[in-house]
Design a protein that fits this description.
The chain is α/β, with parallel strands linked by helices. The chain is built from six helices and seven strands. Strands 1, 2, 3, 4, 5, 6 and 7 form a seven-stranded parallel sheet that branches. β4 (about 115-120), α5 and β5 (about 140-145) form a beta-alpha-beta unit. α5 (about 120-135) runs parallel beside α6 (about 150-165).
């Protein structure tokens, strides 16, 4: 039976990096879409997997990353989409959610064959994660209103590449269909 997972990319963030000023307006704009996806996925019993940079903190785990982001100046952006007790968490060191992480194994254990990617950055981590999902024969959906970008022109090109080259379904957060796996 086909199963979908929602993958939230790099949204646990202190925004203490060079491109933060360019990224923040787009994060604020996509936050409602990410929040709606999270709420619907949780309500339907769809696995929610956060895949997040470790920011070079090799001794950190997901709890420490979350705590640091919640102490930062943009805690409101993190608090709105923070993992709950049912969320899964994968720490990554590079752009792709799959590169040298246990994500592929986790998806296999969960029986997932379709991933919905949301988060940041459209023209970087979302794009590379979509490619890696595609080459692993996973179906990919990217809601354009639930991904944030640094450069809008590159983000638009990345969405077109995902659609054309990776057969990704580009849609809106409200049009993502989650099947209810809870029996409700």
């Amino acid at each position: 039976m086909a199963k979908t997972a929602l993958i939230v990319i790099d949204m646990i963030n202190t925004y203490d990096h060079d491109d933060a000023d360019l990224l923040l307006p787009s994060v604020k704009a996509c936050l409602p879409g990410v929040t709606r996806l999270l709420n619907r996925a949780r309500r339907c019993g769809v696995p929610v997997i956060y895949v997040n940079d470790n920011f070079g903190q090799w001794r950190s785990h997901h709890g420490e990353l979350l705590e640091a982001a919640l102490r930062g100046p943009h805690a409101d952006l993190v608090r709105a989409i923070a993992p709950d007790d049912t969320s899964l968490f994968v720490v990554k060191a590079r752009h792709s959610a799959f590169y040298e992480t246990p994500l592929n194994y986790l998806l296999g254990q969960e029986g997932v064959d379709h991933v919905v990617l949301c988060g940041q950055v459209t023209e970087q981590c979302v794009l590379y994660s979509a490619l890696d999902a595609h080459i692993r024969h996973l179906r990919v959906t990217v809601p354009r209103d639930a991904v944030a970008h640094i450069h809008q022109d590159l983000a638009q090109a990345a969405l077109r590449m995902m659609e054309r080259n990776m057969a990704a379904h580009i849609t809106t957060a409200d049009d993502v269909g989650f099947s209810d796996t809870t029996g409700r």
